Amino acid sequence: MTGVAIAGVAESELGAVAPGTTALDLMGQASARALADCGLEAKDVDGLFAASGQLAMATVSLGEYLGIRPRHGDSTNVGGASFVAHLAHAAAAIATGRCEVALIAYGSTQRLLGRASAAIGERDPYEAPFKAPMPVTAYALAAARHMHEYATSPEQLAEVAVSARAWAARNPLAFEREPLTVEDVLAAPRVADPLGVRDCCLVTDGGAAAVVVSAERAASLRRAPVHVLGVAEAQSHRHIASMPDLTVTAARESGARAFAEAGLTPGDVDLLMLYDAFTITPILFLEDLGFCAKGEGGPFVEGGRTAPGGSGPPMNTNGGGLSYQHPGMYGLLEVVEAVRQLRGEGGERQVQGAEVALVHANGGVLSSQCTALLGAQATT
What we know:
Mean pLDDT: 96
Number of strands: 11
């Protein structure tokens, strides 16, 4: 057990923010809201954890913005998985006395600026000559391979988007809430075969923050603590051309380690937050995290099984990156939703009796994987 808990969470303004807004503005806004959520102030923070595609020194910039001189800083950047990794790093820092109040934050204005202007690109000499639009081409490659090996169908991919939209319809903060059917997904314009527009995540602005403290301290703060039961990281490659197997991600490793640390199994999980930058990713992660066998992810999501009222575990109850928000790096928004569900603050989308949530985040082109198990109680 990690011995730490998430005491406060919040989002910044989301969707399409006002001209002149910066990524740092959103990061600071979310931070102030998360601190208020648990009854702490900026002066209480002595550990900063942040990553950004728009800020070269994210924690240094955030510290200046908030007027904080932290004892410990961590700007680890492994893409969208960064902030679940930061949970592990914050736990280690608190356990070793390097800090007592860890603030994890993110902000992005990628919709306002355009994706090309809001991210640092890396040129791979083996892929760049083909001028493939990344990252969608990489995920389309993984989807095509999965379809080839396991007969995964376009309809099964579409089920992921339809489930996300059904949850988003219950979330007033979701960017897309209109009804969506499997037929709508299949009829949408193609982006990179076999993925169409509705198989791809939103492009939004936004940010989020979380406050992590010792479990003992969390019990004395404003909100019911959400305990970090287990968390682990893994990575397998940087560029898709180097991925050992297009159908197997490093989630197999991060998930196994996180479950072992928490002393839990997939059968103990009440809620799934699986990074859905594209419809193929939750299918891969369901398999690699042990919720079904390799190749069975497609059938697992059929028939609205992960949607409201479905027969399977609720998945991406905020609407996910496909319908809720996706400001470039999405992982911290997954954490926010999981915490709210475990506190019983989900409103119309509340999963009744949720005690354990799995949050899994992905970075790069299926490159980095981070898994966390969060609990309403310190022991399960």
